[in-house]
């Protein structure tokens, strides 16, 4: 309010002929805003915070959990089918207790979702590479999986064995047909 009085007095002192129309218009607008504020009808605008703040509890957590479940189910089905073919072709003795216990332990970990997300992501990537029949990238992914897996060594060895079985036996047989 004091500023508007000062502006008004300034106008009187200088004379209205020396002030441009634009300056008068701006000062008039400023006085009107101050009158509205004094009456309580207009508040000073505040900055709006547009920073993205996701609702972590509902949407993202549920989406991540759903994605993880889908990946785990997909990998579980894939490994079970591969294991059945592997044992059916007698590539390994079904009676070999270490291989059988590693296979069962791995499948139980996948069923109970007791597997790290990094291992799950690598397994899903390797499965995708098999479906794409990209053997070179699959071999690189197997090396990476062997180096970075946090699974027990027997589980890791069994997975690598199954994927090598795909590389050496299943994919070449498909390509011949």
From TrEMBL:
Residues 20-34 have a biased composition (Basic residues). InterPro entries: ERICH1. Residues 16-66 are annotated as: Disordered. Residues 56-66 have a biased composition (Basic and acidic residues). It comes from the Eukaryota. Coiled coil: none annotated. This is Glutamate-rich protein 1. It comes from Chrysolophus pictus.
């Amino acid at each position: 309010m004091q500023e508007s009085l000062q502006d008004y007095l300034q106008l009187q002192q200088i004379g209205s002929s020396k002030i441009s129309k634009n300056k008068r218009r701006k000062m008039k607008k400023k006085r009107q805003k101050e009158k509205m504020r004094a009456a309580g009808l207009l508040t000073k605008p505040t900055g709006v915070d547009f920073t993205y703040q996701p609702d972590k509890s509902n949407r993202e957590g549920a989406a991540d959990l759903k994605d993880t479940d889908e990946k785990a189910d997909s990998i579980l089905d894939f490994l079970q089918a591969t294991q059945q073919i592997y044992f059916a072709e007698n590539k390994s003795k079904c009676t070999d207790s270490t291989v059988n216990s590693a296979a069962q332990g791995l499948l139980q970990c996948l069923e109970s979702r007791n597997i790290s997300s990094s291992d799950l992501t690598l397994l899903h990537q390797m499965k995708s590479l098999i479906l794409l029949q990209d053997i070179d990238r699959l071999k690189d992914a197997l090396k990476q999986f062997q180096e970075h897996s946090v699974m027990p060594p027997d589980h890791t060895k069994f997975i690598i064995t199954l994927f090598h079985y795909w590389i050496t036996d299943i994919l070449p047989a498909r390509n011949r047909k």
